Amino acid sequence: MELAECPYNAVISRDQMSQSAQGLLIVISGPSGVGKDTVLRRLFELAPHLKYSVSYTTRPPRPGEVDGHSYTFVSEPEFLRLIEQKEFLEWAKVYDHYYGTSRRRVEEALNRGEDIILKIDVQGASFVRKRKPDGLFIFITPPSTQELLSRLTGRNTESPTALAVRQKEALIELGLAKDYEHVVCNRDVDETAREILAMIAAEHERRKTRV
Ligand code: 5GP
User: Fold this and answer.
1) 110: which of 22, 30, 144, 157 lies 20 to 30 Å off by Cα?
2) What CATH number does the domain located at 3-52+115-210 have?
C-alpha cells in the first residue's frame, strides 16, 4: 500500500475524529509486558488531541516516571481517603498496590467533548463497563504467551518475587481478553496504535449515525 493511501498516516486532528458533544471513553487493558505504554506513546504522537486519564497509585515511581504525568503517586492512607471521598470512577488492588481512576478528571474531559483513554486492568475495566457501558473497550494481546513472558523478564523493573507475581497474573489476565469488544494483537507498535485509532474513528462514525 502506498503511504498516501493509508488513512492514519498523518497526525489526526480532533475535528477529524470527534464531532460529538460528549467525548468518548476509551478503556485499554492488557497483561503486564504486552507493551501498552509504548503503544499509547505512539497513539498520542499520532493523535495528540486524545487525553490520558492519569491514575492515582500507591506504587512507588519507577525510574523516569513523573508524578502527575505517569501517575499521581500517593500514600496508602491518602488513597484510602480518596476512596472514602468517592473520588474514583473505579479502583483496584493490582500486584499489591492500589490503582484508581479519577472520576472528576474523566467526567471533566468527557464533558469538554474530549476523548479520554484509561489504561486500566481487567477488574477496573469491568467496573467502568457497568458505569459507562457506552465506552470503547479494547484489549491488547501479545503475539504469543512466550513473547509476553520474555518481555516481562527482560523489562528488569521488578524484583524476582514481583516478577513471578506479574507473570502469573499476566497469564490470568490474558484469558480475560474474551470479555472485551475489541482485541488487538501487538505485533508492531505502530500498526497496533493505528488499529486503535481506526477503532476510535469507527466508534465516532457509529455514534454519528445513531439516532
Ligand atoms: P503498572 O504498575 O505496570 O504501571 O500497572 C500495573 C497494572 O495496573 C496495569 O495493568 C495497569 O493497566 C493497571 N492500572 C493502572 N492504572 C490503573 C487504574 O487507575 N485502575 C486500575 N484498575 N488499574 C490500573
Assistant:
1) 30
2) 3.40.50.300
